[in-house]
Amino acid sequence: MAAAYPEDTSPAEADPFQCLDGAVDWTGVEENREQQSQEIEVLGSIYTSELSVQQSAAEDAESRNSFQLEISAALPQKPVWAEVWVSAEKQSQCSVSEASTSCRPEAERPKFARSESGCRLYTSLPLNYLPPVTLSVIMPESYPSAAQPLFMLACTWLSDSQLEAVVNKLDHIWEEEGPGVIIYSWANWIKECIFEFLQIKSLVIMDGIHTFSTSRVTNSSLDAMERIMELITYDITEEEKWFAMDTQTCQICYNEDKGDTFFRLKPCLHHFCDTCISEYCNFHVQEGSIGQLSCPEPGCGQTVPPDVLRQVLGPARYLRWERLMVQRTLEQMGDVVWCPRCSNPVVKDESEESLACCVTCDYSFCTECDDHWHPGELCKGLRTAENRARLRQQMQRARGANRDRSLKEQIEDFRRELYDRHRQNLLNYEDEVKRNFKRCPHCKAPVEKTGGCNKMTCRCGQSFCWTCLAKIEGYSHFGQNGCLTFGGEAMRPPQFVQANLHDGFATYKAAKQIQGKNAPQRRCSRCRHGNFKLDRNNVIKCWFCKAHLCFMCGSNISGNVASHFANSKCLQHSQNS
Fold first, then answer.
1. In degrees rounded to 5, what are phi and psi of residue 481?
2. DSSP run (H or E) holding 250
3. pLDDT tens across 524-549, in order?
4. Which of 75, 86, 128, 239 is deepest in the core (most CB within 10 A)?
5. What pLDDT score does 392 carry?
């Protein structure tokens, strides 16, 4: 028996609840009232959190039983794809929806494209969880003995016409099975059969199309963007909830535990137990190898998010990570150098090729040799006896035969000649490096091979084959691609010219040759490379990362150099031990 509507009113225009206005009289229908209470109690035991009772006749004799039931439809497969079509005027809202899924893998984010007509934007996205269908019910006095319950349906992922078809189907189920209790049959049909009944293969959410609807369909006011945002939010929330409730396996130690004890990295969604990810992050921050602080899943490469680092690192370690990140960013900038006096970053002067002025300690220095700014003079590395003798000879020639040109112009020519020779020496040095070093295929840093097998690991963490420079993991590459695990001679250290001795790497090599392999050295706490001491000064500049460190205690020196020695037991000058 279908629901009754007021006289002279079509089903499409009727309010199914308006016929219940007026006082409630349960006289003669006490059995209906008892059956309704029992049905609501059974539904509450099945749908514990999904049932919301609004009014109860058991508590108020003048009230009707009314409630809302949230029914989650069983998906025919996971994921279900949703196709979204919106007006091109909503491009800004599309950008918001794309940004809201930044925590998901790239393939699962909506990417709107313009249709051929240019009037619409469209995209598709996978959904593993859909919001429930809301069934609002009011039980009249004559239910379940004579009349069916009055109900309304709402659902964000179904169109008005689809909801209307579901409404008619529920009426048909009552006609077949009624009179009698019917709510559970309705709920079970919606859960198990709604996709098959509507023949849904993928959801289509479209803007600007309105179909007929009755007052028993209540979500027609939502536009396509409001619906898609609700679908995305619900899908992300439900996935996180079920992940936390289910048993998960750590991809490092393979221990199993509840998901709420795991860290789930975003946007790659790889998960690891709190113990493993904490030890992993603390190790790299302590060692200064933050370039390798990426997702531990092989082949992933996504960086560990700052919110995860804040939780697993202590306050001191987190501050160290922030400082190392700033230093790493500055080192990758071509116009930034480090002040040789206070070790703070300095931007090169645009008007002078080799001038930099530190705003922290007001020190102006030459970026070629790190000495004080010497306009019109050669760098210390070029101030050799030979060059000075040649300079005197040039000045004598200027006073003699070549009086047609000024002395200043001829000296400038000679100075330019020296710098040209210096640059040629640097080019020769770079050629020597190219012959004896190879560049990492990931970060392009030069890597030297001094012995061992042909599997090389750069300081950025990338492993590669020394023979073909292919990126590799493990040793499976060798023997299959014509590359040998062992083979070839260890590369000899390059020979450095005297004119380039102010270079940090050359100084390191020279000190190693002078003092021998057993000479005391200090490893830089930032890059872990060894450094020798050439004279009495205990302030050492790392040849690799240009950081300043104390040779006595090995700590990095930032800020005022003198303050480190004033506030510690270290001596700024001492004899070589």
1. -120, 20
2. none
3. 777 777 777 766 778 887 776 777 88
4. 86
5. 62
The model's pTM is 0.53
Contact present, 537 and 572 (Cβ < 8 Å): yes
Measured CA to CA, the distance from residue 548 to residue 220 in angstroms comes to 67
Give the integer Cα–Cα distance in Å for 325 and 327: 5
State pLDDT tens for residues 226-281.
Answer: 777 788 888 888 888 888 888 988 888 888 888 888 998 888 888 999 889 999 99
For residue 85, is pLDDT > 60? yes
DSSP string, 159-225: -HHHHHHHHHHHHHHHHHH-SS--HHHHHHHHHHHHHHHHT-SSEEEESS------TTB--TT--HH
User: 182 vs 51, 164, 175, 214, CA distance in Å?
Assistant: 16, 19, 10, 21
Q: CA distances (Å), 347 to each of 75, 367, 373, 416, in order?
A: 58, 10, 15, 25
Q: Answer whether 33's CB lies under 8 Å from 41's CB.
A: no
Give bridge partners of residue 541 from the DSSP assignment: 548
Cα within 13 Å of Cα(313), Cβ side: 23
Return the residue matching tokens 């490379």: 529
Tokens representing 65?
Answer: 């039983």
CA dihedral 258, 259, 261, 264 (to 10 degrees): 160
The pLDDT of residue 189 is 92
* Count of all residues that appear for the chain in the document: 577
**Residue 442 in contact with residue 423, Cβ under 8 Å?**
no
Round to whole Å and give the CA distance between 40 and 375. 91
For residue 373, the one-letter residue type is: W
Report how far residue 260's alpha carbon sits from residue 235's, in angstroms, rounded to the nearest whole number. Answer: 18
Q: Which residue from 311, 354, 318, 319 is spatially nearest to 335, judged by alpha carbons?
A: 354
Least confident of 76-90, 201-215, 456-470: 201-215
Q: How far apart are CA 538 and CA 568, in angstroms?
A: 13
Nearest-angstrom CA–CA distance, 425 and 483:
34
